[in-house]
Design brief:
- The complex is a heterodimer of chains A (277) and B (430).
- Chain A has 13 helices and one strand.
- With 277 residues, chain A is mainly α.
- Chain B is α+β, with helices and mostly antiparallel strands and 430 residues long.
- Chain B folds into two domains: 250 residues, 3-Layer(aba) Sandwich (Rossmann fold), CATH 3.40.50; 126 residues, Coagulation Factor XIII, Chain A, domain 1.
- Chain B is built from eleven helices and 20 strands.
- In chain B, the strands form four sheets. In chain B, strands 10, 13, 15, 16, 17, 19 and 20 form a seven-stranded mixed beta sheet that branches. A six-stranded mixed beta sheet of chain B has the order 5-6-7-3-8-9, sandwiched between helices.
- In chain B, helix 5 packs across helix 6, helix 5 packs across helix 7 and helix 6 crosses helix 7.
- Classes of the chains: A mainly alpha (277), B alpha+beta (430).
- At the A-B interface, strand 1, helix 2, helix 6 and helix 13 of A face helix 3, helix 4, strand 4 and helix 5 of B.
Chain lengths: 277, 430
């Protein structure tokens, strides 16, 4: 008598909404790790500066913003040095844009693997978002150095910083899941995302303080989850700008809703993704 | 009684034709979009009509016991790969269900997920993870994998510097050491050199002898007969027959030969290439120009391939070859214009290409004939099952007799007396 294999799967057509099967994603956590590792390790091979680019990119953007918006346009910066003011916002913002644009295109760019091997497809957009997190932590060192240079030190609010990072991650994933699923069918998506993100940056207080937004629209404006993230970063790290309030609670709720619905939408499309790619 | 490793009930998969056609026509590209911006959106939101769909697999029932090695034969588009893809969970079926008991490993195409910038060592771990191996498992088998692949010296070199052969060997080595209870193999053996192919077949054989279940798709019918304990034959998504491999292979071969014989080349749909040149007909002729139904061993015969250039313009740099395969799918010979330096610098837009074979050396029997042409170095037309070549018994030696075997050749027998003792023989002294 042979030993019965424990692993058995029923393969059949699913109609409508499917379960998320998060347990399976957990089983494939090593793959998640290897995909993040592949992206980071593969990306900087044969580059003279290598991983230095992770910190150079936001740094150069910060210098340009300081010259254009801080000096020439003379934007206010909550009484902080403009470089520090903009860099504290650029950190979560760059994480968000990279995570959204990369995960939006992730299913299409990984179609070679997806059409040949089975694994939970959720691993693909997740790994791109996590890759962005690694970049974030590298660039975070720069903001710490800048804070020492300008003599700005965080208060007790700094304990909330991880919560704002989590909100940024959730927002990026929510957008990423929706977009990645749509991009499988409509290749226009990855094309459009790049442009929309540029526009979106001016709808979030990256280069200017949110106090510049007219009073009448400010509540509506602050329902944008990324406004909450960036205000939260400045508040918890630099102690400036408005403290979190009702707007943040509402926008977090919106993110949670978008994330859960995005995951289900993804799971629904996941099963026949290969036929569409 | 053990439970089957795989139970398939009423399995079917429907594809929507329009999407595939549009993709083939490049409508997803910018040009097509500009001409019809919302056409794709409208189509993709509407329900597919029956005429727009194709059943790649339909109503399949199949039970596979643990330890069985199942060969799947059928022409292109018969549903073989669709079946494997459903079982591997790469795509979902439209109808029916399949129950798979045990861990399933998949060699649908080796080397997927390899990152060119990463070293061989790093790619082994990455590839293992993609196929569901834990890092500890890869650690335990790492030495074995490297040894099997034969690329030990280059294991820390980025794989983009590997030759394609090394790449494939490394990828197969990882997949072969996955040790699944069920292994799916699709045409991997079409790559690599002969020695490595033997190694792969050997590995498959040993996997099978350990009582694991294998599903094997190949155009190499000989490999199917040698390796498999059972075979099924699919045609247009349906199961035609199921039984002993040599029996199924013979029936499938006969059917495809009959089809090849009854279908003129211009109506063959199972072909590939860019279509710059299209074969439209095949016939056999005597040197005097008389058409032949069959030929005989020892005859001088012209193999005549009619072609047209659909654009109606003369063709430049045309290379052509045809081949003769045995009933088992083994290549027996291949006549290539390039090898004998007889490529065509320019050809009229229609005509025929003729290959004369003086004294045909094939033994009597039925063979399968395929043909390919390239124009400007790119494949223009390739027909795998172009025709059935029937060779009847002929008078090759002028004695009215023929020996057994696949080929006959000219020879002379003679006797030589032994050299006198004490003297070195002629060959030793040279």
């Amino acid at each position: 008598m042979e030993s019965q294999p424990q692993h058995s799967v029923i393969i059949k057509a699913h109609r409508g909404w499917a379960a998320l099967r998060l347990g399976e994603v957990w089983e494939f956590r090593e793959l998640l790790y290897f995909l993040v590792w592949r992206e980071i390790k593969g990306r900087y091979r044969q580059m003279a500066l290598g991983p230095l680019w992770i910190v150079l990119k936001p740094f150069i953007t910060m210098v340009v913003f300081t010259l254009v918006f801080g000096r020439m346009a003379g934007f206010a910066s909550d009484g902080l040095p403009y470089p520090l003011f903009s860099f504290a916002a650029l950190l979560p913002w760059q994480f968000f844009t990279v995570a959204v644009s990369k995960s939006a295109g992730s299913l299409v760019s990984n179609m070679g693997v997806i059409s040949k091997v089975y694994f939970p497809r959720l691993v693909v957009p997740l790994s791109t978002a996590f890759t962005g997190l690694v970049d974030f932590f590298m660039a975070f060192v720069i903001v710490l150095l800048m804070m020492v240079y300008y003599g700005v030190f965080p208060g007790w609010q700094v304990v909330f910083l991880p919560a704002f990072l989590l909100l940024a991650l959730a927002t990026a994933l929510a957008a990423g899941l929706w977009l990645a699923t749509l991009a499988v069918k409509y290749r226009d998506v990855s094309f459009a995302v790049e442009h929309l993100l540029q526009v979106f940056m001016y709808l979030t207080p990256v280069v200017y303080p949110s106090s510049m937004v007219p009073e009448a629209y400010r509540f509506l404006y602050r329902l944008n989850p990324m406004v909450g993230v960036i205000e939260g970063f400045r508040w918890s790290l630099l102690g400036s700008g408005p403290a979190p309030d009702l707007a943040l609670v509402i926008s977090s709720g919106i993110v949670a809703l978008a994330l859960v619905s995005g995951a289900f939408f993804f799971a629904r499309t996941e099963r026949n993704i290969v036929d569409l790619l | 009684m053990t439970q089957p490793a795989i139970e398939v009930r009423g399995l079917g998969k429907r594809y929507r034709l329009g999407v595939a056609e549009e993709r083939a026509a490049g409508v997803r590209s910018l040009g097509g979009r500009l001409l019809a911006p919302f056409r794709y959106l409208r189509r993709s939101l509407s329900q597919a009509s029956e005429a727009e769909t194709l059943w790649a697999l339909r109503d399949l029932d199949l039970d596979l016991q643990p330890g069985e090695v199942l060969g799947i034969v059928g022409s292109n588009g018969a549903g073989k790969t669709t079946l494997l893809k459903i079982l591997a969970r790469i795509t979902e079926p439209t109808t029916g269900q399949a129950l798979v008991r045990g861990r399933l490993g998949c060699l649908l195409q080796v080397g997927t997920g390899f990152h060119p910038e990463l070293s061989g060592r790093e790619n082994i771990y990455l590839n293992g993870a993609i196929m569901g191996m834990k890092k500890a498992e890869v650690d335990a088998k790492f030495e074995e994998i490297v040894e099997f692949s034969g690329v030990a010296r280059f294991i820390d070199t980025p794989v983009k510097f590997y030759s394609s052969g090394m790449f494939v060997r490394l990828a197969f080595a990882v997949a072969a050491h996955l040790e699944p209870e069920i292994l799916i193999v699709d045409e991997v053996l079409a790559v690599g050199d002969a020695a490595f192919q033997r190694k792969c077949l050997g590995k498959m054989g040993s996997v099978a002898s350990e009582g694991r279940t294998i599903l094997f798709v190949s155009h190499n019918l000989e490999a199917v007969t040698n390796l498999c304990s059972r075979a099924i034959w699919l045609n247009q998504g349906r199961l035609v027959d199921d039984g002993a491999p040599d029996d199924i292979v013979r029936k499938y071969y006969q059917a495809s030969m009959e089809k090849a014989q009854s279908t003129p080349l211009d109506q063959v749909t199972d072909r590939s290439g860019n279509g710059a040149l299209r074969f439209t007909g095949f016939k056999l002729r005597t040197p005097e120009g008389r058409e032949l139904e069959t030929t005989a061993t020892g005859d001088t015969v012209d193999f005549v391939f009619d072609y047209i250039a659909p654009k109606g313009e003369p063709l430049n740099n045309v290379s052509v070859w045809f081949w003769v395969n045995s009933q088992m799918g083994q290549r027996l010979m291949q006549m290539e214009s390039v090898i004998v330096g007889q490529d065509f610098l320019s050809l009229p837009p229609r005509g025929c290409l003729v290959c004369r074979v003086p004294r045909l050396r094939l033994a009597p029997g039925a063979y399968q004939l395929g043909v390919t042409a390239t124009v400007q170095g790119e494949r223009a037309d390739r027909i795998h099952d172009a025709a059935l070549l029937e060779v009847s018994s002929g008078d090759f030696y002028g004695t009215g007799k023929l020996p057994p075997g696949v080929f006959v050749d000219e020879y002379d027998w003679r006797a030589e007396p032994a050299p006198p003792r004490g003297l070195p023989s002629g060959s030793d002294g040279a």
